[in-house]
């Protein structure tokens, strides 16, 4: 399997990246993450080019990281700063350095061509920085391809079957709206449940909910798999203008071909100062992702064996899969574009 | 490795298959097993053709099973009965359904061509249904090819080395009879130990055994690996007509190429109402199978690596291996017959 | 990966090989080790040629070993001594037998051509038998290629980074001497730290050490990876002739391509009768090997994936790697010589 390289991926929550180096595998590459004395994030290959030792077990020397095995030191730009066994530094002795940036409380990494790492390409997750919201979040390791997580979020109709807390009760008045919008390579799905009675999740977040309400859900997807989840609840009573909003950043970064890091958040516009509630909300959402979605995706991946391309297994396609299919087409298009570009020099030579 | 498809395999003990669906891998296929409201066993593929979700985690809706991920419902015959996301059911949306039948307290499954699933082909294990016997039994997962378990049972001479409780003491009067009979594709081995003194196992089941007795053992084998084990003990005293009979169903069903489900039973004609003794007898037999035969077979498989065909590894063959060799030849013959049949349409076309 | 076959490897500590058979995988071959009634070591294939049962689970019958599954008996020379199921012993029914010898308190094994197993080829480790020394030792399983352990010992400059207890304090007077000598296929490295102050390790072994001392270290390497480690400490005071010597046998035997058995010892010329100190010294050394070197080598192997040839991964080479590179060249040369020899008959035929 190949990965889209020239896009931003979430590497970590900002608070995870501290002075003490730690390692994470991203797109099958082992990366070490730490911060400089000034607080800037650094991402380097975690594999020393000398004897393949794991850099994250080494000490920081100022902003440089020291190999734990033979003491070679590397700067944040990857250059070897010191060979303690002689004055000579062999040419080519460097670690791969990755562009990284702090934004929206996350550390974003660019695994492709460094000179194309334009921060403007990071999709927007403004609630993380918005004083009108309070955010909880975390990261869930998932034993399945990152695309299976995107499939999951791009078809919210599964909530009626997989998530007891999200099941909307049978009611003749309730009406589902489902739509898919596409703007360039950005896909937005809508999954509104109009005129429902309160149910498990609204019971948790809205104890004094009105008798009838609208659940307005949706997902904005950008390649490779950075998603914004909307879970808003509005009173149906025209005299009741209450509206509970939860925005979620759902950022899925491949670890290996059959596993991924699933960064999630929930930013709420209500009960901002109630940290106990915030913890309960976070636990409820994390449990849904971990024990229901995550477990299901792991089972699906297990049923796929080592195959990573769901489409290659010729699944039966339902109308509800349309957004996921479109997202996979965009990923395929971007992958082919990267592969063609790698082929360019050859093509030029062929033209001469 | 390929498996014989057009034969009955034991899928489960009858009491294992209840309303609550459960999954078992048989011949490398993931199967879900449950019972209808009327109590009939159902066996379907456990992999939803939509998103490859594990069906056994879904709920039953009457006799239908509902996919736990997106709620598709399938009938016992495998047809999709409901698509909750629209009226349309895509053509070809079905689960593979397997013929299953309750017989001799077991659920038997046919993994091949459904129209050839003739119940008359199931070998007979009448003691399970015979009021003159009391049966205990279980299932032991074995980390070895199903054929290694058959090899084990088809050469009972190993009992003198592997099973302390079955070792017959050295005695100049004792005489071993060993024979092999074949009737069509059914092989029967005989391993009688004549004129022995009581030993460990007879001490357990026959505390007042006579001073000299005959141990009459044997195995009837039918392809792929459904065996009937005989362990009978008869007094040598002409005035003592006591005879303790144990019949065992030893039904070995491949799970993967290097693991299998070993269903075993012990049906006794004595101490029928003594359930404490029945438990002791069952534990003794299960421990012999699990910790001696099963452990040995796992070691043998480990020494074979990923190889599943013992013969391909060119073992030294002893005269005591003759029954096992014949059984492997019959399996090979049946496999080739199935493979040739698959080739038929091609051959017909070649003749035109 | 191929292994040098026609060299002596350490199979076990002498005291590990007793009457009770045990198994160890050496060069990817499963071997059973035991002693005859006379106390001579025996090494045979652990895989019975009949049904591939693990011989080490069998009983000894005098000097013969009995297969635990069907009771075949084999003599120390590998010949089948008894088939309990008939008088006939099939031709070719034997276990591979390996030359083994007790020397320097270790059992050495020859995995290649038996008629070339010349004990004079075993490198010397005389301190194990020298009354002026007291030896402690053990074996550490390492999850890395045996050559990575040799690399580790052939470049002792890593001690300054990996081993806190061995770090010599910064001191302007301290001077490092590093040299490499080669005599035929034997490599000797020197790593002396002259005029240091006492540090962690000398604190442990030499509480009344002088204020300034020389640490004289070095490694003698013989193919495939049998090493003699020198760790001597000498007072710098001309009137103080104290010298603490530790010799270590560091014998590395491949288990699989990516794991090895690391036999180590420490023979000291001081505090000979202090067994409590001997235990402390052994624990300190074992912990350094196990938790620092061994753990690092496992990380390096993990970073190499399934690759076993470090050089094939094109590491950056430092001057301190020179001894390790030379050792790998000698291994390569010996491997090619063995492979060419195997090819001889073919070449002869081609010449005819």
Briefly characterize the structure:
The first copy, chain A, has 352 residues and is α+β, with helices and mostly antiparallel strands. Chain A has helices at 146-154, 159-162, 200-205, 275-304, 322-351; strands at 8-13, 22-26, 29-35, 41-45, 60-61, 64-66, 73-74, 80-82, 97-98, 100-103, 106-110, 134-142, 175-183, 186-196, 213-222, 226-235, 243-256, 259-268.
Task: Explain this structure.
The structure is a homotrimer of 352-residue chains. Chain A has 352 residues and is an alpha+beta fold. Chain A folds into two domains: 8-121, Rieske [2Fe-2S] iron-sulphur domain (Rieske Iron-sulfur Protein, 3-layer Sandwich); 126-335, Alpha-Beta Complex (Naphthalene 1,2-dioxygenase Alpha Subunit, Chain A, domain 1). Helices cover 22% and strands 33% of the residues of chain A. The first copy, chain A, is built from five helices and 18 strands. In chain A, strands 12-18-17-16-15-14-13 form a seven-stranded antiparallel beta sheet. In chain A, strand 5 (60-61) and strand 6 (64-66) form a beta hairpin. In chain A, helix 1 (146-154) packs across helix 5 (322-351). The radius of gyration of chain A is 23 Å and the shape is globular. The interface between B and C is medium-sized, with 21 and 23 residues. Chains A, B, C: Residues 8-109 form the Rieske domain. Chains A, B, C: This is Aromatic ring-hydroxylating dioxygenase subunit alpha. Chains A, B, C: Keywords: 2Fe-2S, Dioxygenase, Iron, Iron-sulfur, Metal-binding, Oxidoreductase.
